[in-house]
Amino acid sequence: MDLVCPAGSLPALKAAVNAGADVVYLGLKDATNARHFAGLNFTPKRIREAVAYAHARGSKVYMAINTYADPAGVARWRNAVDQAADLGADTLILADTGVLDYAARKHPDLPRHLSVQASATTRQALDFYHRHFGIRRAVLPRVLAVQQVRALAADTPVELEVFAFGSLCIMAEGRCQLSSHVTGQSPNMAGVCSPAAHVRWQEEGDILKSRLNEKLIDRFEKQERAGYPTLCKGRFLTNGQRHHALEAPTSLNTTELLPELKAMGIAAVKIEGRQRSPAYVQAVTRVWRELLDSLDRNPEGFKPAPEGQKTLSRLSEGSQTTLGAYARTWQ
Amino acid sequence: MRISLGPVLYFWPRDKVFDFYRQAADWPVERIYLGETVCSKRRELQLDDWLEIGAELTEAGKEVLLSSLTLIEARSEAGVLKRLCDSGVRIEANDYSAVAMAEERGLPFVGGHSLNLYNRPAIDVLKRAGMFAWVPPLEMNREQLAQVIEIDPGIETEVFAFGRMPLAWSARCFAARAHNRPKDDCGFVCMDYPDGLSLKTQEEEDFLVINGIQTQSHQCLNLIQHLPELNRMGVNWIRLSPQSRYMNEIVKCWQQAIDGDITMKLETQWLPGAPVDGYWRGMPGMTASL
């Protein structure tokens, strides 16, 4: 299985490559990719450097152009595809059927992967994208139980890539407009979720409140660790009860599923976190390189090193990890 | 412009569903979407029941379509979708699985708002696959929509113009979670909430509504004051999303507004939440211009 790691900057890319990533994925500094945060991502010049650095060390570079094209900006998305080809990216990660169509016609030899943002969960959906755009691989949304992933893996026209570690998106990717409902900006069109420009922290005595465009997302007592106000991870009231009604701050960690994922023929595991620091990317990549190498050496006796798991816990949101939708109990 | 009635998004008892569509037969709506789009565990009605309702509505002069499940996870759900596509009735495809099946069968379909059709090239791909009408994503604003349909797209445009907005889908059932139950043993608790389960902020402010695995706005989208603009832009259909009460009044009010009475306004007490039109104006969806 390939290890696919995130890079929000050239230092992060170098960290990932040096720590053993088979593939690093990145995006341009604009709304054409789903992690459009201030201070992140790559200019075309930096992508050229990134590709040279990665290729010299045997790693590949995937370019994510995985938001949906603004009707007035179709040319920009097409231009991003052309740039990826020109800059030597190994593969495109795409979601928009219009952009997929363009890439397939204009650059037929440049491999295309279906982004998680396209939210394809069935053989029929994968058939559609394969038939029309010749996609080679699809990244699965974080909504399938492991049994469902297995069933799909046994009956798919394309390779499958699954999320293995990082922030847990609990809604079907590409099907969530909560962020734009509250802030006007969403993952699909703007490449952002719960954007920082709309966040306000408010101290009231011993209470710290976090607001997103003035909506109260959570309030924290002094001894609590305050989390970023991602709106699906706040505490709300249902039937008068205060709780993490949708999800608590936590990270996905699929270490224990690795032998199963390998056995079912999953092509790649993906690490989330283009918004993370080079140090984070390096630490997580190193742990996952070791995990995959040890799995290859001894698939039957696979036993993750406790040190590595400790590192992953330390780097997780709220220091908690979960199997997410892979486990029926989570659902 | 004509009125369509979107699929019922909530889990209503069987009798209520039959009763609802008996009334709808007399409403000034010309297109009606039937079927379960949110959760495959909701089986008060089987495909045969929907087809029976559909036959009666067709008899009453309505154009009837079957809406497909939005998030498909299990093979059994794909099996249900296959039967839907083989029923001979045209479908609303709410997922690319449905698009693929419709295309394979040469079955014309409506592209639902969860297909993420944000631009003309994307629409053109699906038009070639058999799409004859499309519903823009809820978050699209009027300028964006105008750019897409400025030059006739050759298919009908249907705008979701009234009702609580479906904003997200998850593998997790939040209604079950609110009752400390696992999804596999949910006890069909969402039947207790005919217009969804309210989710408030810790300041007791109405915020969202939980509808099983779906999350909706608490507020009620209402574009009635923008009707003249929708008309000018070339929108063909106005979609009203069913709610449990006052649907009769709401539909008639919209029809009068479409017929040219610009003084028509929806009464506040008819709406399940505060009226909003933020998305249409390029603002956060939860905001209102009035």
TrEMBL record, chain A:
Pathway: Cofactor biosynthesis; ubiquinone biosynthesis. GO terms for biological process: proteolysis. Its cofactor is [4Fe-4S] cluster. Pfam families: Peptidase_U32. PROSITE patterns: PEPTIDASE_U32 (PS01276). GO terms for molecular function: peptidase activity. Keywords: 4Fe-4S, Hydrolase, Iron, Iron-sulfur, Metal-binding, Protease, Ubiquinone biosynthesis. [4Fe-4S] cluster binds at C169, C176, C193, C232. Residues 310-319 have a biased composition (Polar residues). Residues 298-319 are annotated as: Disordered. It comes from the Bacteria. InterPro entries: Peptidase_U32, RNA/ubiquinone_mod_enzymes, UbiU. Required for O(2)-independent ubiquinone (coenzyme Q) biosynthesis. Together with UbiV, is essential for the C6-hydroxylation reaction in the oxygen-independent ubiquinone biosynthesis pathway. Belongs to the peptidase U32 family. UbiU subfamily. Forms a heterodimer with UbiV. This is Ubiquinone biosynthesis protein UbiU. It comes from Natronospira proteinivora. The gene is ubiU.
TrEMBL record, chain B:
Keywords: 4Fe-4S, Iron, Iron-sulfur, Metal-binding, Ubiquinone biosynthesis. It comes from the Bacteria. Pathway: Cofactor biosynthesis; ubiquinone biosynthesis. [4Fe-4S] cluster binds at C39, C173, C186, C190. InterPro entries: Peptidase_U32, RNA/ubiquinone_mod_enzymes, UbiV. Its cofactor is [4Fe-4S] cluster. Required for O(2)-independent ubiquinone (coenzyme Q) biosynthesis. Together with UbiU, is essential for the C6-hydroxylation reaction in the oxygen-independent ubiquinone biosynthesis pathway. Belongs to the peptidase U32 family. UbiV subfamily. Forms a heterodimer with UbiU. PANTHER family: PEPTIDASE U32 FAMILY, UBIQUINONE BIOSYNTHESIS PROTEIN UBIV. HAMAP family: UbiV. This is Ubiquinone biosynthesis protein UbiV. It comes from Natronospira proteinivora. The gene is ubiV.
